[in-house]
Specification:
The chain has four helices and no strands. Helix 1 runs antiparallel to helix 3 and helix 1 packs parallel to helix 4.
Length: 71
């Protein structure tokens, strides 16, 4: 069961790090902005649900964030 849910957890981690990086870019390199943005995303109930269960939403969120970052 852990192996099946691992891709969702990995995508949630990538999404959280991408949000932190985007916030730092917008805030001019301020690490506090990146931390707060990552914390707010991680504490959102909808994101927690998508990250815990294997739904297509977490993959879509990750792809949209990476596209916003320009990767």
């Amino acid at each position: 069961e852990c192996i099946i849910r691992l891709p969702a957890v990995a995508c949630a981690l990538v999404a959280t790090l991408t949000v932190a990086r985007l916030a730092m870019l917008v805030a001019g390199g301020d690490a506090r902005a990146g931390f707060l943005a990552a914390a707010m995303l991680s504490l959102t109930p909808a994101f927690q649900t998508a990250a815990q269960f294997l739904t297509p939403d977490v993959f879509a969120i990750t792809c949209w964030l990476l596209a916003a970052l320009g990767i």
